[in-house]
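Purpose: get a first structural picture of the assembly so the mutagenesis plan has something to point at.
Setup: two entries, given in the order below. No constraints added.
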Amino acid sequence: MISILNAISLWILPIIILTILTVGLIKKVPIYEVFTDGAKEGFKVSINIIPYLVAIIVCISMLRASGFIEYIGTMFSGIFEYFRVPIDVLPIMIVRSLSGSAALGIFSDIAHNLGPDSYATKLAAVMVGSSETTFYVLAVYFGAVGIKKFRYALLTGVLADIIGIVAAILVCRFLV
Amino acid sequence: MNYIFYGLILFSIIFGAISGRLNDVVNAILSGAELSVKVAFSLIGIMAFWLGIMKIAQECGLVKILAKFLTPITKILFSDVKSDNEAIGDIAMNFTANALGLSNAATPIGIKAMQELQEVNKDKNSASDAMCMFLAMNTAGFQIVPATVIAILVSVGYKNPTEIILPVLIVTSIAFISAIIIALIFKNLWRGQL
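Result (structure tokens, whole complex):
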């Protein structure tokens, strides 16, 4: 199973790239010129998102440094015991919408400390595996086109994240 | 966004002061700003590469073909965007790349889709319904194979790491569908309010 998955993930990019280039050549598209033309855009876009990234990432770094996330953890520990959710996964729930690398960091910490057979490791794996860094996605995508009013995009993302967390707890209870 | 920005910073400073970690909070400003630039710079190369490849895909008509396949779905989700708009094809490509766990490829394509949505957006400062829907799809993080998580599980000696794939697929599908439904509900609630 895992070797099939590895093979798929190894081959998928080369196949996509080759298909695009081959079809381009057949259709007589000047692929080299078109490529460099498109690549120039990439530079501009990356620079354009810096102000937006600074705003969001600085805010989130400050919040994490203030110790607020640990504080929430102690506050909700009772509820967690009630639903039989290991308290170790709580930081992941809070962090996973804010910072992908932090969520991965906490996850590998749990996996190393509690071992592969613990329920916390499995639950944490499902939570991290099924999440996307909502705040980062919004900063990058809206930043790239200069949107300043997010309207309901942030609320939608956060609500879906909460549903994802609840779903992870339920699915793990029955499946893992 | 103004209130969220203000609130997060005010809250961090107050909370940091109470918990005696104000020093860490101040340092976080510096490290956070540095990290943002690092993130943006690490994007430049891969961004350039994928936008180059995507431009070829677009010129030779591949994006249009992919978009046509997905028209029935995108018509419902992106009712305010014409189905022959290039954005529809790019959204389809972005979704495919995300589902396969190729976030390096998904981000540049997604940004391109956003630029095309911005062109048909009436208020250039404010997110259109199509953009909110597109980002709802993206933030839900639909993914078939969570490669990084599996790699970490393998590293700690997890016996059967692929057993995590099914639960992840179920959870991520629930989150994805909920995100779309929530965005559709908000689209009607938010009407007129910009």
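The mean pLDDT of chain A is 84.
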